[in-house]
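Minutes, project huddle
Topic: does the predicted pose make sense with phosphoenolpyruvate bound?
PN asked that the exact inputs be recorded in the minutes so nobody has to dig through chat later. Recorded below.
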Amino acid sequence: MSMELRREKAPDILWLEEITKEDISLVGGKGASLGEMASIGLPVPKAFVVTAQAFRRFLRAAGIEEKLFSKLEKIDVDDTSALEEIATMSKKTVMAAKMPKDLADAIKAAYEELGGDKVVAVRSSATAEDLPTASFAGQQETYLNIRGKKDLLEAVHRCWASLYGARAIYYRAKQGFDDRHVNIAVVVQEMIEAEKAGVLFTSHPVTGEPISIIEGSWGLGEAIVSGSVSPDKYVYDRHSGRVVDRLIATKKIAIVPDGMKGTKTVELDPERQRSPVLTDEEVKKLAHYGQIAEEHYESPQDVEWAIAKGEIYILQSRPITTIKGTPETKKEVSEGKILVQGQGASPGVGSGRVVLVRDVKDTAAVREGDILVTKMTNPDMVPAMRKVAAIVTDEGGMTCHAAIVSRELGTPAVVGTKNATSILKNGQQVTVDGEKGVVYDGIVAQAAKKESPPLQSVIPVAITATLVKVNVSLPEAAQRAAATGADGVGLLRIEHLILGLNRTPQWYIQNRKEEEFIQELYRGIKTVLDAFIGKSVWVRTLDAPTDEFRNMQGGEDEPLEHNPMMGWRGIRRDIHTPEQFRLQVEAFHRLWKEGYHNLGLMFPMVNHPDEFSRTKELLRSWGVDTEKVTLGIMIEIPSSAILIEEFIRRGIKFASFGTNDLVQYTLAIDRNNPLVADMYDPRHPAVLKLISDAIGVCRRYSVECSICGQAGSDPKMAEWLVEQGISSISANIDAVGKIRETVARTEQRLILEMARRKNA
Ligand code: PEP
Ligand code: MG
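Predicted holo structure (tokens), as shared on screen:
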């Protein structure tokens, strides 16, 4: 039927197949989008729409148009009680009016055609005559699980009345819509009694890579949307047409239809909890429908799906909103009086008012956009660090707490200035250049208002054979980290998560609150694992020196050490205090059991192969199958670089250079002491020899060899590492792009050189 004809006849009912996106003024946004989905071949559940024209006919026939609109015209929507009163009256007026008999008959006939006594969803789909594309989503009502003609007519009538709910009237008034020109259509759609349902991202929701990610659980999709169940996840590579990863979660409950009452939550039996929701064939079909939607709408989509009696249904398709394509623009300052200088530890420029922070109590004075100046940050300052425009410290180097956390928050930082806390004064306006390591007097650049840091470009610079991974410390940075397109997480430092709790693990043990601790750890790690589906995430076991624990609740009992850097930390402490180690392992164990096989464990500060063997024994004693999970070590102490072959014999699956410590222990240079900062040299020949030799051994045994120390974020070092044959490089979030580029260039140069040698 042509548009012209349809308009002439002002249809009361339109079926989805008859609708195109041009019909939006007849069927509203919801109706038009369902119609469009059906028209491109997506299996949308059967539906018809009671058109906006039918609604207008109803108003006219009942003679209530003027009564309604004249009241609405005069309303002051900021007067809440007047708004409520008029809304209630208007809804009553609509509900009291009789639906024309021929319209009621048409709706009943359409319902009959739908299949007689089908259970339907009745959804409002509002539209403005003058701006048909305006969205009123969520302002009007939806009624689920409607069965029978009488209830259907009642639900349609209620949808109409909901156009005059207080919230909807308020919204339209504020948006400048004239109620005389706002109409409502009603979509009546067969409800799918989903046996399984979920969502599908047609491309990676963060990085935009061409892989489809499907989440699914038993029953209705609400279980996933409401977050009441951890869904299965399936990763489908659209290039190879294969399921490349699947994560089968324990799905304890399902939300299922409950007749007229709506829905109910049921517990699933243990076998069903753990069984996969989707077959590979279903994943493939869903990904195929996703691709149809993505190609049609010309952007990656977030698709809701359901499966009932073996049939796939597509319920909704919306553009994914989290993919961002523009890299952060770099701001620089070039002039102004320099007040203090140090190391540029986190790039960007921030201007604002100085707030000197001696300890956590002073952080109460920190406001959004201030400049936090302190001797050295510690974990209890992280909430304040989130607010500020820049951070400046007296102490520390590129690998100190302030540097690591600032980089992840995307906040400019200058560290190791030696004297910022004595030179800078409270309230003084300054500008911090985190690239150059300089603090200027006054506002010398148009610094950006502090916003959550933008995601980096989603298009990987190049595919490299050497993996380029990313370091993460704060779970909140996981999305930004994934948006770099990194090939995984080469270091997840969990101590930032634990230190942020402000209570030592020992406190949790003494206060019998172990479960709380395990949950915190579990949740934080899971956030990162979820952002890196299909990619490995190496979680490092706790590595906090005793002095960092001391300020926390429970920290009173921490031993006083002369040199905490070389003291009771890392794996040696976990081996000495298995009760503390066990809590961490419990969190890992739960994640493995839920199917997060991308979780690998990395042990810090290992100095003897026996420590690795002992650690494995402990894991086994707590039920971990150490042959199945991925275990590796950090090379932070020269002894572990020298003994790497023995570690390999004892079963490590990977080794990663922690150059922050490796440099300080090889050269006897305190990494946080600004007095010797100029001698802290990751490219010292002794350090390079240790690294190069260990890479050689790992290569001989085909063991993955990586780097997660700060040196891996230095392009010069990255070039050298690729030449040595390193398998992966894990860089800071802000450095992933440039390291990827360096790695790509180096690999190409090496290939070219080899080809030239061959041809010579
Ligand atoms: C390292 O030592 O290089 C490392 C990555 O660990 P951290 O900086 O946490 O000591
Ligand atoms: Mg270290």
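Observations noted during the meeting:
- Residues 332-447 form a domain with the Glucose Oxidase; domain 1 fold (CATH 3.50.30.10).
- The pocket of phosphoenolpyruvate (ligand 1) is lined by residues 399, 491, 493, 543, 636, 658-661, 708-709 (CB under 6 Å).
No decisions taken; revisit at the next huddle.
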